[in-house]
Structure formats: C-alpha cells, structure tokens
Amino acid sequence: MDVRNGMGLRPLGTSAAEFEQDLLSNLYYRRGTTVESASTQDAYETLALTVRDRLAERRVRTAAAHYAANPRWVYYLSAEYLLGKQLEQNMLYSGTDRIARIAMKQLGLDPDEVEGLDVEPGLGNGGLGRLAACLLDAMATLDIPAVGYGIRYDLGIFKQTFKNGAQVEKPDDWSYQGNPWEFPAPDDRQTVFFYGHTERDANGKTCWIPGEVVLGEPSHMLVPGHGTDTVNIVRLWRARGSESSFDLSRFSAGQYAEAVDEAVHAENISKVLYPDDSTESGRELRLKQQYFLVSCSLRDIIRRFRLRNTDWSEFPKKTVIQLNDTHPTLAIPELMRLLVDEEGLNWDLAWTIVRQTFAYTCHTLLPEALETWSVPMFERLLPRHLEIIYTINEHFLAEVREAFPGDVDRVRRMSLIQEEPDRRVRMANLAVVGTQAVNGVAELHSELLASTTLRDFAELWPAKFHNVTNGISPRRFIKIANPTLSSLISEGLGGDEWINDLDRLAGLEALADDESFRSRWRAVKQANKVRLGLGDPESLTDVMIKRFHEYKRQQLKLLHIITMYHRIKANPGQAYVPRTVLFAGKAAPAYHAAKHVIRLINAVAAVIDADPAVSPYLKVVFPPNYNVTLGSLIIPAADLSEQISMAGKEASGTGNMKLALNGALTIGTLDGANIEIRDKVGADNFFLFGLDTPAATALKNNGYRARDHYDRDPELRHALDSILDGKFLGIGREVGESLLNWDEYLTLADYRSYVDAQDQVDAAWQDTDQWTRKSILNTARSGFFSADRTVRDYAAGIWHVNPVKVGR
Ligand SMILES: *Cc1c(COP(=O)(O)O)cnc(C)c1O
C-alpha cells in the first residue's frame, strides 16, 4: 500500500512530461529559481532531488516493511566507502534515466553538462572501500535488511595530479557544493567520550569519567536495490563540537581562534580520510576516528533494536555486525562496556551476546598491515576499553592454556597484548576472539590466513574460519560502466535478467563461435577505446589500474615496457604488435618507493613519446586521479588486465574481476582471486606466469639474491641498467637500486616468466578471432564474481539472515 495515499500525497509520475513538471517544481520550491535564471548547478541539484524523490518513496516503504518484520539485520561497519557517483546509478535504479534526459532537453538543458556536475564521494582508499560499496549494493538488491555505517569525511581521498611526472596531492573537498544525495538526521546525533579515567563505586561497579565530549551527527545516503523496491541506507557520521565547546567569553574578548579551539579539535575527527591504507600515521587521531565510528554506530544500532525489542538476549538474534577489516574492532570492547557498565548485564552474559553478534572480514596477509596500537596511547584515549580488553584477554588466555597446556610461546603469540619490543594492543587478535566468524576474501587468502597469519587461532577454533570470495556489482561495473556491451549481451541472451543473475552470462558461450557476434563484440571494445580517448583504438590496450604498492609490482610492468622499448630500438624495421599501456593509481603520500615508480613511469612515457622509431608501436599513458569514475571509463576499453602481484600478497583483488567481466584477458600470477578467475574462465583464456606462493616463500627463505637474475638475463640487465644509467630523464635510480639490491617482492625472479608470457599475449592478439572468442568467454564465465553471490555466501554461511520483501 502506498504510504502517500494515506497522507494525501500524489504519487510521482513515470512519464517524461511528469518528470519535467517535477523538475520545474523542485527548481522553483527547493532551489528558489526558474529555468530562465537557473545555473547549471541549480539544474544539477534539481535533477538529483527529482530522482531522489522517486527513491524516497521506496525508502519509506522499505522502512515500513522492515519495521513490521522485525528481522535480523546486517550492520556493516567500515571506515571506508568508495561509493562512486550517485546520479547515473540512481537514475537507473529508479527507472528515470530515459525520461530524465527527455525532460531536460524539453527544458533546454544539456543533460551531459548537467550530469557532469555529479561528484564522486571519495570516502575510501581502494579495494576495501569499493568492496563495502559493492556489498551494500548487493544486499539491497537481494532485499537483505542492512545499514552501512561509516564516517562522513570532509576531505576524501586526495586528488592526484602530476608535476614534472611526480605525484602531487590536492585536498578533495568533495561536498564543497553540497551533496544532494544526503539526508541529514540531526535528531539521531550521538554523544561520544574520550580520555579521562575510570572509577569504582561502592558496589565495585566501574564507571568511566571521560575528559572530552564530542557529538556525532549522522546523515544518510540511499542505497537502492536494483530491480526491487528495497532501499537501504548508508549512515555516515560527522564530528561536531558540543554546545559548550564554543567559548563566548573568549570570543567577546577578541580571542577568536581560542574561542573555537575546542570545536575545531572535535571536528578534526571527521576532517580527513587517512590516505594511507598500509602504514601508520597520525596515530592518535586515527584511533579516535575508529572509536568515533564505533561508538556512534553501536548506539544507533541499539536505538534501532529497541524500536521493536526489549530483551537483551534477543540482540544477537536480531543483529549481526560485520567488521570490514580491523578498523572498527573497537566495537567489541565498546559493546561490552555498554552492556556491562551502562546496561548492568553480568560479564559472562554480555560476552556471550558480543561474541554471537560480530563477524570479522580480514583483508590482508601482510603482517606489517595488521593493526596494533600502543598501550600508553590507548590507555590515555580509552582507559575503560583497555581494562575491558585486559579482562577479555585473561579469560581468553585461560582458554588457550587449557587447550594447549605448557605452550607458553603460543600464549604469548595469541595474547591480545604484544609485550615485546613494546606493549601494543593487537586488533586482529581482538577481532578474532570477539567474533563468531572470521573470513578471508578469496580461497587462497582464506587458506593462507588459517595456515600462516592466524594459524594459532585456526588451530584453536577451526570452525570459526570461512572463505567468502569477493565480488563486484554488475550494475556498477558493466551495466552502467559499459552500456554498449550490456546492450549487446542483452540482445545475445534475449533479455537483461543477467544483470541480477550474473550466472546467466554463461549463455554467451554459444555465441563465442558466432562470427557476426564476435565482430560486434570487437566493435564495442573499439568504441569504448574511442570513448576513453587515450591511445590508438586499434592497439592492444594493456591496463594496470590499482593503488601503487611494491607488492602489486607496477615496477614489473615497467621493466616489460622498457624491454619492449629496447627490442624496438634494436630492430626498428620489424612489425610489432602496437600496444597502449595504461597505468592509473595513487600512491600513499608518504610511500616514497611507490612515488618513485610513478615518476619513472611518467619519464619512460615521455622518452617513448619523443622517439619516432618507437612511438608507432608503444605508447604509455597515465591519466591522473584513479577513482571509480575513471575506472569505469578504462575498464570497458581494456584488452589485457595486469594482475601481477607477488604470489601470496594480494588478498583477493576486485579490479581483476571488473576487467574479466568486461572481456579483458588476464595476465597474472597465482595470487588472490586470480586463481579462481583462471579456474572459471579456463587456463586457455588466461596468461599465467611466475612463482606460486610456496615457490615464492621457499625462495625468500633460502636467501633470495635479485642480482643473480640480473647477472644471468641480458634483457633484464639492459632494462635495469638503462634505469640505473639515468636513460629516462635521469629519473628512477632509486627504483633500480631497490630492485637490484633488495627486491622484497621478487620482481626480478618473475621477470623472465612475465616477459615470455607477454610474448604469448602478442602472439594471441594477432589471431583476432581467437582473441575475441577468449574475450567473450571471459565475460561468459565471470558470473561467479557478482557481489550478489558474495552476499549470498555471507548470508548463508555467516549472517544467517533472510530477505524481507518490500510490499507495494
Ligand atoms: C576496484 C577498485 C580498486 C581495487 O583494485 P585492485 O586491482 O583489486 O587493487 C581500487 N580502487 C578503485 C577506484 C576501484 O574501483
């Protein structure tokens, strides 16, 4: 039943004429202007609101259905969300994409210009934040009652520019013009405490006397499902000074800066997304952010629980809280504190509830990326939480001692507190101990977690460990990103049901042998290259798009480029397969080694460009500021997907899935989800190279010497020497030195195998029909990598939740 009927509201129309009327009305009543005097920004915001209104009605019905069902909820806690632009998605999901464009044209507005003002909220660094966004999309599409919680950073991931080829970071004030997709909800603001000390009262009850009070103000964005009426939300918290934080007496005395000191201090908590996803920086502020997110979100979750429930023992039946990596792990001691200190539950009951409520997704294997916090700092900021962690640890270590009598070393390794060389709280250990399920994000990753990184825990609680292979939203990464290929697929399959049921892509296999389908497939790829507008659309478009990290090995791709360059220089007369090599990605601002690689890529690109003997065959392009928007332009144009990390280092990858789904062939190592991609698409349709994880580990353990490879392989030596000799504008000697003397990620060990595999790529490319066939098969067999499958795996194996259908 339409809620609006009861409210006397008119339903929103589905025709272009009605949409046009609503545009005019919103322009007038909500922007206070008319078509004649509207700026493009006015037009954009009005369009956004008019689209949003159509989802708001579904949101109201969703909330009503959820209230009536009192279901088990999934609460997804993530420090990052890389949502991508909202307008195109929301037009698609509300079915207004066509009528909106007609209506705008009727009003004399240029739809492309208006839609061009939509901004990408960059509230994440890379894969982890994008996974969060893809899972929210899939949960809504599958009608799972869910709320995403995060932080509304004022400044998102920095904007990357290049100056003389070097990365320069600019602040990303993404909501400077406002954000029409957001609903502020000031009534649901929460109070968050920091610092202070703890006291015991006469009954032995502990209370925390905090030293700082900050307000968390929420706003939410809509998360519509595709092909369903469910509209979930993602709720983002912004820090505010409390009312008393403005010092009027100082202001009156002319001390303007001092007057707002406290408020500024408070608001700093949600000021910036930490641009660094693998090393520590701004430590205390970062820990503050984590607690801020967790404290606000848990109080909100409890508020929501109480709308329909009273009994605490029901809490785990109605609530599952998924921790996206360790950043929100403080939720575990925080819920203990709320239950024991504030609600008066006894410890054991509280602990049972907490453990049943949480689940933890681990995203790394790199030991240096496992979060820890110094005990003195932790104690200063969150004194009560440290006490709670100590108590959890006591109980837990008793359990370990009982299971493994006399194994002192194991107890030391598993403790929530590291003692040497300094005392630190181990967040991953806490996350494993305080949850009912722990999952890795690809088969290999989950195996390695259980056999190496978290081995002690897997031996204690084998049943707790799961695998849930990551996935991507087919709406975002093929339907929206690649509309022409989507149309061709729908035509080939006789319908568009595949968008919500990606396994149906298997139906394309039969068409891979159809000559005319293949030629249309090629034409789409070609047109996507023209749309991208970088490099010759006839050339093999070879892409490596991801964060810059030494383990991902952009430097290996670079050595291959330099080798191609040398080969062409040595034999200029020969025919070479023309390639456009495209890099995109950001390096963490303090990650100097990665920034040197960026600078060297740009230098190599310039040298090649300036060389007329080489440039007809080889072009290196590096568009700045990789984000979801740029990725969505590049991915549909890619022929070759570079997934060349050192085996055992990439947890899963999701870029690899996006590219395979769009018909790129992968060249890759047996790492992360590459293994599953190769299993699905078939070894013949994947270019494999390099050491596998056991071989890489053995090599490292047996004293790897990069220089041996340099000594043995003349092509490699030539490539490295040219870097060391400064042949590329004198840039990049640090990169060469580091590879030759250290090479932490076995780049040189895999070089020969990689270059040979690239030769196979060239050979395969020359058989156009076969290549296209492989491309179609990659798409046809990528159904498994839908985030819908990922969410179904979570729902069945970990969350045990059921969908709630939203009624009409
Ligand atoms: C998918 C995606 C990533 C993750 O890429 P990987 O190749 O899996 O590391 C990072 N950033 C953006 C913007 C993405 O869309």
From TrEMBL:
<protein>
    <recommendedName>
        <fullName>Alpha-1,4 glucan phosphorylase</fullName>
        <ecNumber>2.4.1.1</ecNumber>
    </recommendedName>
</protein>
<dbReference type="InterPro" id="IPR000811">
    <property type="entry name" value="Glyco_trans_35"/>
</dbReference>
<dbReference type="InterPro" id="IPR035090">
    <property type="entry name" value="Pyridoxal_P_attach_site"/>
</dbReference>
<comment type="function">
    <text>Phosphorylase is an important allosteric enzyme in carbohydrate metabolism. Enzymes from different sources differ in their regulatory mechanisms and in their natural substrates. However, all known phosphorylases share catalytic and structural properties.</text>
</comment>
<keyword id="KW-0663">Pyridoxal phosphate</keyword>
<dbReference type="Pfam" id="PF00343">
    <property type="entry name" value="Phosphorylase"/>
</dbReference>
<comment type="function">
    <text>Allosteric enzyme that catalyzes the rate-limiting step in glycogen catabolism, the phosphorolytic cleavage of glycogen to produce glucose-1-phosphate, and plays a central role in maintaining cellular and organismal glucose homeostasis.</text>
</comment>
<keyword id="KW-0808">Transferase</keyword>
<dbReference type="InterPro" id="IPR011833">
    <property type="entry name" value="Glycg_phsphrylas"/>
</dbReference>
<dbReference type="GO" id="GO:0008184">
    <property type="term" value="F:glycogen phosphorylase activity"/>
</dbReference>
<dbReference type="GO" id="GO:0005980">
    <property type="term" value="P:glycogen catabolic process"/>
</dbReference>
<feature type="modified residue" description="N6-(pyridoxal phosphate)lysine">
    <location>
        <position position="658"/>
    </location>
</feature>
<dbReference type="GO" id="GO:0005737">
    <property type="term" value="C:cytoplasm"/>
</dbReference>
<dbReference type="GO" id="GO:0030170">
    <property type="term" value="F:pyridoxal phosphate binding"/>
</dbReference>
<keyword id="KW-0328">Glycosyltransferase</keyword>
<keyword id="KW-0119">Carbohydrate metabolism</keyword>
<comment type="similarity">
    <text>Belongs to the glycogen phosphorylase family.</text>
</comment>
